[in-house]
Amino acid sequence: FHPWPTDGGWKDLFDGETLMGWDGDPRFWNVQDGAITGTTTVDNPTDGNTFLICVGENKDRKPAEFGDFELQLEYRIVGHNSGIQYRSFKLRGENDGWRVGGYQADFDARKEWAGANYEEQGRGILAKRGQNITINVIDGSKFIGLGTLGDPATMAEKILDAPGWNELRVTAMGNRLSHHINGVLMSRVVDEDKENRRASGLIAIQLHDGAPMQVQVRRIRIRSTR
Question: In a designed cystine with 165, which of 74, 79, 94, 222 is the match (CB 3.0 to 4.6 A)?
Fold first, then answer.
Protein backbone atom coordinates (compact mmCIF):
# COMPACT_ATOMS: atom_id res chain seq x y z
CA PHE A 1 0.00 0.00 0.00
CA HIS A 2 1.40 3.38 -1.05
CA PRO A 3 -0.69 6.41 -0.06
CA TRP A 4 -0.77 9.57 -2.14
CA PRO A 5 1.40 12.46 -0.93
CA THR A 6 -0.56 14.58 1.56
CA ASP A 7 1.01 17.94 0.75
CA GLY A 8 -1.08 20.63 -0.91
CA GLY A 9 -3.90 20.37 1.60
CA TRP A 10 -4.71 16.70 0.96
CA LYS A 11 -5.98 14.46 3.77
CA ASP A 12 -6.04 10.67 3.70
CA LEU A 13 -9.40 9.02 4.41
CA PHE A 14 -8.07 5.44 4.58
CA ASP A 15 -5.02 4.11 6.43
CA GLY A 16 -4.50 1.13 4.12
CA GLU A 17 -4.87 -1.42 6.93
CA THR A 18 -8.15 -0.99 8.84
CA LEU A 19 -11.67 0.39 8.47
CA MET A 20 -10.96 3.04 11.09
CA GLY A 21 -12.93 6.13 10.09
CA TRP A 22 -15.54 4.10 8.17
CA ASP A 23 -18.84 2.52 9.15
CA GLY A 24 -20.66 -0.28 7.34
CA ASP A 25 -22.21 -3.71 7.66
CA PRO A 26 -19.38 -6.02 8.84
CA ARG A 27 -20.91 -8.91 6.88
CA PHE A 28 -19.71 -7.30 3.65
CA TRP A 29 -16.74 -5.00 4.34
CA ASN A 30 -13.12 -5.64 5.28
CA VAL A 31 -9.60 -4.74 4.13
CA GLN A 32 -7.80 -6.94 1.59
CA ASP A 33 -4.70 -6.23 -0.49
CA GLY A 34 -4.35 -2.81 1.16
CA ALA A 35 -7.82 -1.84 -0.07
CA ILE A 36 -11.29 -1.36 1.37
CA THR A 37 -13.14 -4.41 0.05
CA GLY A 38 -16.87 -4.97 -0.26
CA THR A 39 -18.07 -8.45 -1.25
CA THR A 40 -21.40 -10.15 -1.81
CA THR A 41 -21.88 -13.80 -2.70
CA VAL A 42 -24.75 -16.12 -3.52
CA ASP A 43 -24.71 -17.26 0.12
CA ASN A 44 -24.19 -13.75 1.52
CA PRO A 45 -26.26 -11.28 -0.52
CA THR A 46 -27.30 -7.79 0.53
CA ASP A 47 -30.99 -6.94 0.77
CA GLY A 48 -30.94 -3.60 -1.06
CA ASN A 49 -27.97 -1.37 -1.74
CA THR A 50 -25.69 -1.00 1.28
CA PHE A 51 -22.88 1.49 1.88
CA LEU A 52 -19.63 1.94 3.76
CA ILE A 53 -19.86 5.47 5.17
CA CYS A 54 -16.94 7.77 5.95
CA VAL A 55 -17.21 8.95 9.55
CA GLY A 56 -13.68 10.32 9.81
CA GLU A 57 -12.67 11.16 13.35
CA ASN A 58 -16.22 11.41 14.72
CA LYS A 59 -16.31 9.27 17.86
CA ASP A 60 -20.12 8.97 17.69
CA ARG A 61 -19.89 7.42 14.21
CA LYS A 62 -21.77 10.36 12.75
CA PRO A 63 -20.92 10.74 9.03
CA ALA A 64 -18.25 13.29 8.19
CA GLU A 65 -19.56 16.21 6.12
CA PHE A 66 -17.83 17.56 3.00
CA GLY A 67 -18.86 20.53 0.85
CA ASP A 68 -16.58 21.85 -1.90
CA PHE A 69 -13.74 19.41 -2.47
CA GLU A 70 -11.59 17.33 -4.75
CA LEU A 71 -11.66 13.59 -4.00
CA GLN A 72 -9.11 11.16 -5.42
CA LEU A 73 -8.95 7.38 -5.12
CA GLU A 74 -8.28 4.13 -6.98
CA TYR A 75 -10.86 1.43 -7.57
CA ARG A 76 -11.38 -1.91 -9.24
CA ILE A 77 -14.53 -3.98 -9.52
CA VAL A 78 -15.44 -7.58 -10.35
CA GLY A 79 -19.07 -8.05 -11.30
CA HIS A 80 -22.09 -5.77 -11.15
CA ASN A 81 -22.14 -2.10 -10.09
CA SER A 82 -20.78 0.27 -7.47
CA GLY A 83 -19.90 3.92 -7.03
CA ILE A 84 -18.76 6.65 -4.68
CA GLN A 85 -21.47 8.66 -2.95
CA TYR A 86 -20.75 12.30 -2.15
CA ARG A 87 -22.75 15.23 -0.76
CA SER A 88 -25.03 12.43 0.34
CA PHE A 89 -27.22 11.63 3.36
CA LYS A 90 -28.43 8.69 5.40
CA LEU A 91 -31.94 7.56 4.53
CA ARG A 92 -34.56 8.11 7.19
CA GLY A 93 -36.96 5.49 8.46
CA GLU A 94 -36.45 1.99 9.72
CA ASN A 95 -33.35 0.48 8.14
CA ASP A 96 -29.98 -0.88 9.18
CA GLY A 97 -28.31 2.55 9.20
CA TRP A 98 -26.20 1.97 6.10
CA ARG A 99 -28.65 3.21 3.45
CA VAL A 100 -27.67 6.36 1.57
CA GLY A 101 -29.02 8.79 -1.01
CA GLY A 102 -27.35 11.58 -2.99
CA TYR A 103 -24.87 12.18 -5.81
CA GLN A 104 -22.88 9.17 -6.98
CA ALA A 105 -19.78 8.83 -9.17
CA ASP A 106 -20.89 5.60 -10.81
CA PHE A 107 -18.70 2.71 -12.00
CA ASP A 108 -19.40 -0.88 -12.99
CA ALA A 109 -17.66 -4.00 -14.23
CA ARG A 110 -19.22 -3.81 -17.71
CA LYS A 111 -18.24 -0.11 -18.03
CA GLU A 112 -21.76 0.76 -19.11
CA TRP A 113 -22.22 3.39 -16.40
CA ALA A 114 -18.65 4.14 -15.33
CA GLY A 115 -18.08 7.89 -15.14
CA ALA A 116 -21.77 8.79 -14.96
CA ASN A 117 -23.40 11.00 -12.33
CA TYR A 118 -26.31 9.19 -10.71
CA GLU A 119 -28.44 10.49 -7.86
CA GLU A 120 -29.17 7.55 -5.57
CA GLN A 121 -32.69 7.67 -4.10
CA GLY A 122 -33.32 10.89 -6.02
CA ARG A 123 -33.50 12.12 -9.60
CA GLY A 124 -31.72 9.14 -11.09
CA ILE A 125 -29.26 9.61 -13.96
CA LEU A 126 -28.05 13.22 -14.03
CA ALA A 127 -25.37 12.75 -16.70
CA LYS A 128 -24.19 9.70 -18.60
CA ARG A 129 -20.54 9.23 -19.55
CA GLY A 130 -19.65 11.76 -22.23
CA GLN A 131 -22.37 14.23 -21.30
CA ASN A 132 -22.05 17.85 -20.20
CA ILE A 133 -25.39 18.66 -18.57
CA THR A 134 -27.08 21.61 -16.95
CA ILE A 135 -30.15 20.81 -14.86
CA ASN A 136 -32.72 23.61 -14.89
CA VAL A 137 -36.15 23.71 -13.33
CA ILE A 138 -38.84 24.94 -15.67
CA ASP A 139 -42.24 23.49 -14.79
CA GLY A 140 -40.40 20.65 -13.06
CA SER A 141 -36.90 19.29 -13.53
CA LYS A 142 -35.69 19.63 -17.11
CA PHE A 143 -32.37 18.39 -18.42
CA ILE A 144 -30.55 20.60 -20.90
CA GLY A 145 -27.43 19.28 -22.58
CA LEU A 146 -24.62 21.72 -23.30
CA GLY A 147 -22.79 19.37 -25.63
CA THR A 148 -20.69 16.25 -25.43
CA LEU A 149 -17.34 15.62 -23.81
CA GLY A 150 -16.48 12.72 -26.11
CA ASP A 151 -17.68 9.41 -27.45
CA PRO A 152 -18.81 7.19 -24.53
CA ALA A 153 -17.47 4.00 -26.14
CA THR A 154 -14.07 5.53 -26.83
CA MET A 155 -13.93 6.92 -23.30
CA ALA A 156 -14.74 3.47 -21.89
CA GLU A 157 -11.57 2.13 -23.51
CA LYS A 158 -9.59 4.22 -21.02
CA ILE A 159 -11.10 2.27 -18.11
CA LEU A 160 -9.24 -0.85 -16.99
CA ASP A 161 -10.79 -4.20 -16.15
CA ALA A 162 -9.78 -5.86 -12.88
CA PRO A 163 -7.17 -6.68 -11.73
CA GLY A 164 -6.16 -3.27 -13.08
CA TRP A 165 -6.75 -0.20 -10.92
CA ASN A 166 -8.52 2.95 -12.09
CA GLU A 167 -7.98 6.44 -10.72
CA LEU A 168 -11.23 8.26 -9.98
CA ARG A 169 -11.32 12.00 -9.30
CA VAL A 170 -14.48 13.78 -8.20
CA THR A 171 -14.57 17.57 -8.08
CA ALA A 172 -17.48 19.36 -6.42
CA MET A 173 -17.35 23.17 -6.50
CA GLY A 174 -20.59 24.99 -5.85
CA ASN A 175 -23.16 23.43 -8.15
CA ARG A 176 -20.53 22.13 -10.60
CA LEU A 177 -19.75 18.43 -10.40
CA SER A 178 -17.09 16.67 -12.50
CA HIS A 179 -16.00 13.03 -12.70
CA HIS A 180 -12.61 12.01 -14.13
CA ILE A 181 -11.40 8.42 -14.60
CA ASN A 182 -7.73 7.88 -15.44
CA GLY A 183 -7.38 11.56 -16.27
CA VAL A 184 -10.34 11.66 -18.69
CA LEU A 185 -13.30 13.95 -17.94
CA MET A 186 -16.20 11.51 -18.11
CA SER A 187 -19.15 13.71 -17.12
CA ARG A 188 -19.94 17.21 -15.92
CA VAL A 189 -23.12 18.48 -14.24
CA VAL A 190 -24.15 22.04 -13.44
CA ASP A 191 -27.02 21.57 -11.01
CA GLU A 192 -29.36 24.58 -11.12
CA ASP A 193 -32.17 22.65 -9.43
CA LYS A 194 -32.16 24.64 -6.18
CA GLU A 195 -34.85 22.50 -4.58
CA ASN A 196 -33.04 19.18 -5.01
CA ARG A 197 -29.32 19.93 -5.32
CA ARG A 198 -27.04 19.46 -2.34
CA ALA A 199 -24.13 21.64 -1.22
CA SER A 200 -22.59 19.21 1.29
CA GLY A 201 -22.94 15.76 2.76
CA LEU A 202 -21.30 12.43 3.43
CA ILE A 203 -18.98 10.24 1.35
CA ALA A 204 -19.65 6.50 1.05
CA ILE A 205 -18.83 3.46 -1.07
CA GLN A 206 -21.71 1.52 -2.62
CA LEU A 207 -22.21 -2.23 -2.62
CA HIS A 208 -25.07 -2.96 -4.99
CA ASP A 209 -27.73 -5.56 -4.39
CA GLY A 210 -28.32 -8.28 -6.96
CA ALA A 211 -25.59 -10.33 -8.61
CA PRO A 212 -22.51 -11.33 -6.56
CA MET A 213 -19.71 -8.77 -6.79
CA GLN A 214 -16.57 -7.38 -5.25
CA VAL A 215 -15.44 -3.76 -5.20
CA GLN A 216 -12.10 -2.51 -3.88
CA VAL A 217 -11.11 1.08 -3.16
CA ARG A 218 -7.71 2.34 -2.00
CA ARG A 219 -5.50 5.45 -1.77
CA ILE A 220 -8.44 7.68 -0.82
CA ARG A 221 -7.68 11.33 -0.16
CA ILE A 222 -9.58 14.63 -0.17
CA ARG A 223 -8.88 18.35 -0.06
CA SER A 224 -11.09 21.37 0.31
CA THR A 225 -11.49 23.65 -2.71
CA ARG A 226 -13.05 26.53 -0.79
Answer: 74
